[in-house]
């Protein structure tokens, strides 16, 4: 925890600093006015609002750790070790300040300039808006030695703020579940949240931020901690690239009481052909730029042109170096911090505050001085810009040739089988490999809305090619012309795109995967708008899709069936198995068959997912078995199976029975007090390594625990192995539920020929239409860039010049590969 050195009176953070500006009207009626949209953009904005509150605590010097967790039910927990939201009574509202923060719009410490000098959330919707748009929110505060809790339902308190216990810790934990009545989707993207949290960690030196995704079978976790700030961010962005100078250039102007604008700039050039510039204002990624970005670009062009002229480095070059020339290969981060910034729109995509002059002046002076002191670095940067200018002219001529063809629909490629519909919104183009697949696709398609473009062989790897060389490649020219939107910054126009679904349909083998990757590299590097097109409502749309042909072909006799994926295959096998199989519970005589058996087995598959997660959390399966037996009321320890979980943890004698059962099974246990919640808990110590786990209130409130207990109760018939499986006249005895499931799946595979589907050519036109092209039945995978930094790294590693990072990537990920085709 960072030490507090500020004047105590000046920086006192209590109820008096919580200022109420207005009520909560209209948030649920018009949520887009407050969070941008009710789609993915607005959904993730909820998390950003809560995280920004924790970041503000860090900027004020009171917090150095933030933990974000995505739970199984798509609820989110954000926890920090800041001071904790004030819990004393608000002077004007006559309610605890924490409740005011959560239930009154525009109530928060950020509106008091003494509480937070710099804040990202000055539109102020903050926690209360998240609360209003959540079907459930729970707040837990550790402050001044106490633990306080309150829960809300759609913004209305379920009970008053109450003290549950004591603690030596401090901070705030917010858990919320977005309201399905408000949002069109409540499925959070781990990658999108990771990208935002990584940015926050880079922009705020010394803060440790973690994000955990509990929804996956194997729990995903990222941890971000950077002492080097934005200079380290630039190095991270240039990882695995060939840089022109070893150290990033870094310039800083701290804010003072007299000049409240703080400026940080870090930059480094590489030998690639694109630019990556990130601009932030008060920790907010201003994706649409603004005055700080304009100031940076202006100063960069002026400084490089000035040095190029005065040093005589461009004697052979006529004219000025353009902005595009000086930014080719540039990776830069600009961060400004200022009180009360003016943004455009609630999503804060563009900074409107007038800081262009101060940024230009500061950066121009510092960059000029740097060039004078480091002539070798200056020479390499100017040389790169001159090379870019010469290539720009060659590319302009090549682009003009392509542009003339692309804009003239009379010159569409001969190999393109176009559709008759002219409205791009309903048109789609399938990009397929080779004439063989193209032939089947052309015959099987809906000619009104579906176009087919077969490409010959593998297209050029644009990661390693200059723009003019790329435009001379025949298959790439064909692709650009067919799409009709042009190419390059000056000529690309998304409004002229002829198809709003661009579907990659390649074979499920090594060559098909390579072709798909080359195409994705082309779109990502040369037509990024197709992957990230910002719509008027702020949502980001992708036009690129990957066709998902069925994974399996199942044959039995003369009948054939195509099956989409592993999950559908398991469902199919279970349904098939239960047609001819019955299960007898030996001890009770209960018998299951047909639909009853299928339903039970499907619940068992779901239960196994939760069970394995709990087993990882609690050391081993035996602990899980004992705990589930107890909490489901199965073994009689807790008497009433349906009693509230809270009552069990509040009753020390009752929970003690579970502790005794664990101790009798050979575990080293202790019944202890959970002082923060005023409850009991069981500590289980792992003898071999000295670590321990808790059976506590935190575990009991986890969705996976609650759902596992609920499902476990439904397995009463399967609680008494062994089981006898009857297939006709054959009987087989198994000892566990897992053996039962495995045996039934194996039995279902008898007499079936299951083939991994690989080539599009294996299907006739009718089959291709039915499984892969029929909009009513097909599955398409939309390609989106949720984490731009991670995506850039992946393309650089897999498609770039450096072999060692690629070899390392393959070694690190080899064990995660499933269904490898060789």
Mind explaining what this structure looks like?
The protein is of the alpha+beta class and 822 residues long. The protein folds into four domains: 210 residues, Heat Shock Protein 90 (2-Layer Sandwich), CATH 3.30.565; 167 residues, Ribosomal Protein S5, domain 2; 155 residues, 3-Layer(aba) Sandwich (Rossmann fold), CATH 3.40.50; 131 residues, no CATH class. Helix content is 37%, strand content 21%. It is built from 25 helices and 35 strands. The longest helix has 32 residues. The two termini are 53 Å apart.
**What is the CATH superfamily of the largest domain?**
Histidine kinase-like ATPase, C-terminal domain
Q: What's the total number of strands?
A: 35
Low-confidence stretches: 1-10, 406-410
As a whole number of angstroms, the C-alpha radius of gyration is: 31 Å
CATH architecture label of the largest domain:
2-Layer Sandwich
Proportion of helical residues: 25-40%
Major pleated sheet: 9 strands, mixed
The termini sit apart by: 53 Å
Q: Which structural category fits the helices and strands?
A: alpha+beta
How many structural domains are formed by the residues?
4
| Envelope shape | globular
Class of the largest domain, according to the CATH hierarchy?
Alpha Beta
**What do we call the CATH topology of the largest domain?**
Heat Shock Protein 90
Number of helices: 25
Beta-strand percentage range: 15-25%
Average pLDDT level? 85
